[in-house]
Automatic annotation (TrEMBL):
Residues 16-202 form the Thymidylate kinase-like domain. This is Thymidylate kinase. Phosphorylation of dTMP to form dTDP in both de novo and salvage pathways of dTTP synthesis. Belongs to the thymidylate kinase family. Keywords: ATP-binding, Kinase, Nucleotide biosynthesis, Nucleotide-binding, Transferase. It comes from the Bacteria. It is an enzyme of class 2 (transferase). It catalyses: dTMP + ATP = dTDP + ADP. Gene3D superfamilies: P-loop containing nucleotide triphosphate hydrolases (3.40.50.300). Its EC number is 2.7.4.9. ATP binds at residues 18-25.
Length: 211
């Protein structure tokens, strides 16, 4: 369902990924503004979430105890609603969708962090998404130790953010595996650098794609 983009009339799907504390939220607003300045009609959204139903599921995922399979099923249920209600309609009308996390996060967190069988996640991915993937994924990558320092200084931890460094090292490895499997879609951003340096990396990725 995803296809190369050569016209402003064809929607672009950009996902922003990375472990908690990678600094994604710092750059999403500026990236959205940058794309709008270049003529894009941008829809900003997030996962888990993006629709009333998916936002309800987000609350359960972040604050209620459950096993990894229940987590994955809730994530994909919310994603299905998100795709049908927000993402696909926006792309069909030529808009740019800027999504804070998508399926790569599920493979990283439930697959890498929780240790779920990747074949189960892959089956759910195909069933729910029917081939839909982002056109570009900006992966904000940094060591788990640095991310933990940033989280501690920024906010109260949710159920995922309370996990130990071993968990987040596994999540980071999960992202690395997804990036290795889709090198043309992924662009690694060194998120350990300054805000200005990270912004420059994002700009370079956009310019390389003619966006």
């Amino acid at each position: 369902m995803s296809s190369p983009l050569s016209s402003k009339n064809i929607g672009r799907f950009i996902s922003i990924e990375g472990i908690d504390g990678a600094g994604k939220s710092t750059h999403i607003a500026s990236l959205s503004a940058r794309l709008q300045q270049r003529g894009a009609d941008v829809v900003n959204t997030r996962e888990p979430g993006g629709t009333p139903l998916a936002e309800t599921l987000r609350g359960l995922l972040l604050h209620s105890g459950m096993d990894e399979l229940t987590e994955a099923l809730l994530v994909f249920a919310g994603r299905r609603d998100h795709l049908r209600q927000v993402i696909e309609p926006a792309l069909s009308s030529g808009k740019t969708v800027l999504c804070d996390r998508f399926t790569d996060a599920t493979f990283a967190y439930q697959g890498g962090g929780r240790g779920m069988e990747l074949s189960v996640l892959a089956a759910l991915e195909q069933w729910v998404q029917q081939g839909r993937q982002p056109d570009l994924t900006l992966w904000f990558d940094l060591p788990a130790e640095l991310a933990a320092q940033r989280r501690a200084a920024a906010r109260e931890a949710d159920r995922f953010e309370q996990q130990d460094l071993e968990f987040f090292n596994k999540v980071r490895a999960g992202y690395a595996a997804r990036a290795a499997a889709a090198p043309t879609r992924f662009a690694r951003i060194d998120a350990s650098l300054s805000v200005e340096a990270v912004s420059a990396q994002i700009e370079a990725v956009l310019e390389a794609r003619g966006w």
